[in-house]
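User: My collaborator sent over this chain with a note saying "see what the structure looks like." That's all I know about it. Can you take a look?
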Amino acid sequence: MSDDSRPSPTSGRPGALVAAVIPAAGRGVRLGPGAPKALRTLNGTPMLVHAVRALAASRAVSLVVVVAPPDGAAEVKSLLDAHALPERTDFVVVPGGESRQESVRLGLDALPPGHDIVLVHDAARPLVPVDTVDAVIEAVRAGAPAVVPALPLADTVKQVEPAAVPGGPEPVVATPDRSRLRAVQTPQGFDRTTLVRAHETVTDDVTDDASMVEQLGERVVAVPGHEEAFKVTRPLDLVLAEAVLARRRLTDGF
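Assistant: Without extra context I'll predict from the sequence alone. Here is the result:
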């Protein structure tokens, strides 16, 4: 569906602007030596550019804040300037911190007033479909303080005790009911006030922003995720991402 024909998610709450924060300050060591993970290329284009385009494809998103490596903001700004991005969306690049949590907070600090809905998206999820982005926004507009896209688990999950030595056998202690478990993706969407309060309150090291909102006792809801919103963390993921892009070029003219 084209940009012009797709209904705008902003119709639910007129005047409520949506901003996206993309932390891209990590090194991505599991991908091996080389450029930071967000700057690795897919089909000749850096993953970060793919991720920014994916968020900006939503007609609701009016601002994207990219949080760059602390010493690489100028490089990232030049990178974004060199690639075609939707004209209707503004872009800001700010230097990040030593942790993902600190980088997201710095991205939040850079948001101007009026952007009452905030998406936080991993730069390493470059292929998230726009329908997933819009579904997250719609759920926040409907009143949820925090929303995550998520997928049911296909594999049986085991809870284990840590191995006595690294790489050693791990005793299994439980088999959770996978029907009640979900693999969480991004973008995660938030009421801005709630997310800011979470970053001001929660000091634990967490893996996603929704976990911080949970610690406030606020409600977090899940909406259907998408298999193409996977996280690129290992060399095999790069191969899969290239395959998805090749399929899109054939079927969608992407």
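A starting point for your reply to your collaborator: Residues 1-14 have pLDDT under 50 and may be disordered.
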